[in-house]
Amino acid sequence: MPAKSVHQNGLATTNGSTVPILPQVKEAILQRVPVPEPTLPTRILRVVILLVYFWTSSIIIGTTQYIGTPLYLINKDHYYRFMAFTKQCMTLLVLSMTQWWTTTTIHVSGDESVQDQIHRLPDGHLQCNFASRMVLISNHQLYNDWIYLWWTAYINRPFNHGHVYIVLKESIMYIPLVGLGLRLAGFVFMSRNMKTDTPRLTRRLGQLTRRSNGGKGALQPMWLMMFPEGTNLSKNGRANSVKWAERQGERDLKYTLIPRSTGTYFCLKALNGTLEWVYDCTLAYDGVPEGQYGQDIFTLRSTYFERHPQAPIHMHWRRFKVSEIPLETLEDFHAWLIERWNEKETLLQEHAKTGQFPSSINQGKSITTEVKLDRWWEIWQLGAVLAPLLAGVFAVSRIFGQVRSR
């Protein structure tokens, strides 16, 4: 009888032999999502093309953002609309990379609070009709969780992918080119020190509650995306969560980390009166062995560079009225948030046992779809500003050159 397997650091030890987990998980996924194994030269070429595509597109988007910055001094409404357009371009870039360089299947479910807001279209695509203004909270499993939540804004009607604001770690702000682009896009960076974060949050949330037309118009769409756990599920994150639970006198969780409530509470207090709903998404990934963490198996490198198929993703949606969330004190809100995370634990236990979430949509079944663009040619939107501008500069230079030559 084989000895019990021990999983640690991405390896499985059985009968004294240590083997990587990833090939085992990958083989199981390939049985459901067949992907030809590329040769080494093909993999190298894919990486080169991916990097050229990403950085070229990022430069185009960044340049477009810089072109639009003077609008802030001229007309703030035009400025924010322009930046929303560039954020749509960011979405198209990320989704096109996810579609063309990997395979990502998503199973979407929800409870009765969203049963009339998630639909399968006749062509097989998924459409959501979520609120145009919300705070979106989610557990954090992998580094790329935000991609699939942003994709939800893309498939929402009305479109909201240009109005997503993600709360990120401060360190991301210092990535060359990317960090500045995310700052111009209005993303929120936090250092996990409220003395430092309070002025940043106050300023950003003030922008998210401004009304157009000099304060006389409507509030702009907004999806403020937050991960209350503060980091993704990992070995270190689990250890810190255990320590935090002990200090707070709370029960630690197995499938999630203990959420930190201060930042989320601050945001909801500041936004209270300007939005009606908090949407909650619970994320789970197939193929993660017991005692292991998805971030060690399904990395950005394995997904995009090596084309290991992404594990099928499960999303379970629900929503809560802001007016029914206790915001009188931080302690009251923390108790509410802990209760929601205990409910997530129950959902994730169900997924671990059955491979799916319970669902009140689609006649009790989840809706299966893929992460991809609605139309491949949408990617040309990236050059919608820069291309005509460059063409105009070229035409003027040609005319000027002809005049000078006479």
TrEMBL record:
Record's keyword terms, sorted: Acyltransferase, Membrane, Transferase, Transmembrane, Transmembrane helix
Instruction: Return the SMART domains for the record.
Output: PlsC
Sample GO molecular function, one term: acyltransferase activity
The record, for InterPro entries, names:
Acyltransf_C, Plipid/glycerol_acylTrfase
Q: What's one GO-annotated cellular component?
A: endoplasmic reticulum
Q: Origin organism of this chain?
A: Letharia lupina
Q: Which PANTHER family match?
A: 1-ACYLGLYCEROL-3-PHOSPHATE ACYLTRANSFERASE-RELATED, LYSOCARDIOLIPIN ACYLTRANSFERASE 1
Entry annotated with the keyword Transmembrane: yes
Family membership, please give it.
Belongs to the 1-acyl-sn-glycerol-3-phosphate acyltransferase family.
Residues annotated as domain Phospholipid/glycerol acyltransferase: 134-265
Q: What is the protein name for this chain? A: Phospholipid/glycerol acyltransferase domain-containing protein
Which sequence ranges are marked TM in the entry?
A: 44-67, 379-400
Q: Name one GO biological process term.
A: phosphatidylinositol acyl-chain remodeling
